[in-house]
Amino acid sequence: MKIVIAPDSYKESLSAMEVATVIEQGFRQVLPKANYVKVPVADGGEGTVQSMIDATGGHLVNLAVTGPLGTKVKAHYGILGLTHSQQSNEKTAIIEMASASGLHHVASGARNPLMTTSFGTGELIADALDADINHIIIGLGGSATNDGGVGMLQALGAQFLDIKGNEIAVGGAALANIDSINISKLHPKLASCHIEVACDVNNPLCGEQGASAIFGPQKGASDAMVTQLDQALNHFADKTVAAGIRECRNIAGAGAAGGMGYAVLAYLNAQLRPGIDIVMETVDLASHLVDADLVITGEGRLDSQTLMGKTPMGVANAAKQFGVPVIAIAGCVSEDANILLQHGFNAIFSVTPRAMELQQVLSSAQHNLLSTAVNIAALYNTNR
Q1: Which long-range contacts (CB under 8 A, 24 or more apart) does 352-361 make?
Q2: Does this model's pTM top 0.85?
């Protein structure tokens, strides 16, 4: 019997690999002779780097880079390992924008997207390029910035000059001062690098559904600041087109991560794709499912939003193509989660055994997951 275990992380408690390992331990108590294949996955958000290096035997690269407020912060990216390299001639890096430019780097009282920069994300990309990486996957989300990715582009060598020929200041507000753009000094290895971006939002760059209006407030923007930022992004897009760079402000996803989606589309010729699709393709999940008898997936919380491209849904869709039954195990299961049973899941379980304080839920996650896995395995074995 072959059992594929492909979960996402349980945020704030267990990584995806830890979740997979505990589930295997529980099942082995009941089915010790089964063949277990652990494939930790993610949907492009927080935890994706760790999941993908765990799945491929890769490693982390730790750096000190420029944080959202201009001070140095600790950040990292991952280089995928031999498992992936054997399947591809590409040398692949996985970067989470939030690692360098995330909201968690800015205290709640200091959040101001007029001033924050994505420069550190560009530094991570530049370091990967210097290491001869020729395939970069960038996960958007969790950013503290609304600078249209200009900071990132500056770190990669692009110049955004004001009317006096000086480099503009950092932050979203400064985009309004762009008079000319020079991309002749962009990192030379960008031309030969395949860049994919994990993006699960459809927002355009500007307007009522744009980066500033939809995501600005959570980064500290007032109504007046939203208007100012939106105008600045629109000006940036106008100057981009004037510089002979393609128009893409209205492409779905251009507004992701404070306009970072726009920057990678227009300047880096990147491809925006659902995060779960990129991850499953990169770890080659399908090859593990071909002869599987059971798939187990999960995440911290299962609810109706799981249907919207979250990890368990992606795994269930992949398993469905091979006719493999899917069981999902989560930290908690919402009242509306049973809708998942109509979309490829054969059963869903919560590991939380009773009403508990959140901190207790997190601290006891490993024990509760192990206990739940043992019981699911026993039930599965009985049905066999």
Answers
A1: 361/13, 361/331, 361/332
A2: yes
Question: What one-letter code names the amino acid at 293?
Answer: D
Helix/strand/coil for 210: coil
Strand duo 59-66 + 135-139: pairing: unpaired
- What sign does the CA torsion over 201, 206, 208, 214 have? positive
Residue type, 177: N
Radius of gyration of the chain (CA): 22
Please, what is the Cα angle at 22 between 326 and 97, to 5 degrees? 80
Within 8 A by CB and 6+ apart from 351, the residues are: 329, 330, 331, 365, 368, 369, 371, 372
Highest mean pLDDT among 37-41, 280-284, 329-333: 37-41
Q: Which pairs from 247-252 meet CB under 8 Å and 24+ separation?
A: 249/204, 249/205, 249/206, 250/204, 250/205, 251/204, 252/202, 252/203, 252/204
pLDDT of 253 above 90: yes
